[in-house]
Design a protein that fits this description.
Length: 66
């Protein structure tokens, strides 16, 4: 996941709540990166993608990348 992809989700999801659900991601750091457009680390990106997939799958959606 890139910072631009995460920024595009901001109107639809509460990023701080998502960060609270992920071990090893500080919500304040993540929110600052979203606000400034600073790129995510590989670990942050992987953890965010995994959590989003888990949440969306649980809700009955399937995620695919274009």
């Amino acid at each position: 996941m890139t910072i631009k992809e995460l920024q595009s989700l901001k109107p639809y999801l509460k990023i701080s709540a998502l960060a609270d659900e992920i071990d090893g991601i500080n919500k304040h750091t993540l929110l600052s990166k979203v606000r400034r457009g600073t790129e995510l680390t590989i670990v942050e990106s992987d953890k965010l993608e995994a959590k989003l997939e888990e949440v969306m799958t649980h809700a009955g959606f399937s995620l695919t990348r274009r």
